[in-house]
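Sample A.
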Amino acid sequence: MNTAHAQVLDLQLRYAHAVDDDALEQWPGFFTPQGRYRVIPRENHARGLPACLIDCQGVAMMQDRVVSLRTANIYNIHFDRHLMSPPLVAPADGDGLVRARTQFLVIQSDQAGVSKPFAAGVYLDLVDLRGPQPLFAERTVVLDSYGVQELLATPI
């Protein structure tokens, strides 16, 4: 495994564990200051349509989302578990940037102990390797379906 691949894999695993452990305050820290996080249906992505279910442009928007989730939003209490394929990593057009493609499945468990598939799709990442640790410059979550069966509250 080359260094870029290992760095991307480490970033993705730390991200998934933070979300799964409900450490949402850590979530924005996985991105560059101008990083972008999008959740988009597969059909819109394939057609180049811009409509997203979530589109956070910049860490400040992500931090606002976390504050909102913690203090204002009402959503089902749940526990997520990410299952991911190893990433396919390739150089991007910029020095120190790589692209990664990773398939995922998120299982969601509710308070009654019922676990079911919540979201499936692919992460399309642009990862910045230039700093002391890798960060997402972009994370596009392409859902296999147009939406999710439950309220989409926490990051995927």
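Sample B, a different protein:
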Amino acid sequence: MYTVFMIIAIVLILVILLALIAPKSYQVSRSIELEHSPEKVWSHLKFLKKQQEWSPWARKDPDMVLTFTGIDGEVGATSHWNGNKEVGEGEQEITRIVEGERIEQDLRFLKPYKSQSDCYMTLEEHEVNKSKVTWGFTGKNKFPMSIMMLFMSMDKMVGKDFEQGLQNLKHNLNS
């Protein structure tokens, strides 16, 4: 009995220590420079339906069911998706727009697990008729996910998808 108690105590102490040192938040972003004016690029960022044209996840599941509510391109507009195991189910809602410069969204994942992140896209004029787009998201790691993040990297998990999405955007703008 004493041995079982000691094992449980050691495991409990280990979990507490891991929870204390685990990352409490994450941030992932990628940028791309485009040979297009900010005015041309903005419509591809601001509108949820346009985002689907370059989204890496839309390409991972062409049969994904999408529904849109609200006025696309305005605060409160929401897209809801339900797809295969690779894309899961969730929704994104536009929460803030700084016209021509920044769009912020609440990104809520429902399946395969529930989580919430703050997503953003910024647009800067890089040179005359050139733009820089930065796409990123931030969030909090809740227990027990925070402990798992000691052994996983959110940047490695989604960074390549962001890179692919920005390349898709570049390709679409050049078409």
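Observation for Sample B: The chain has six helices and seven strands.
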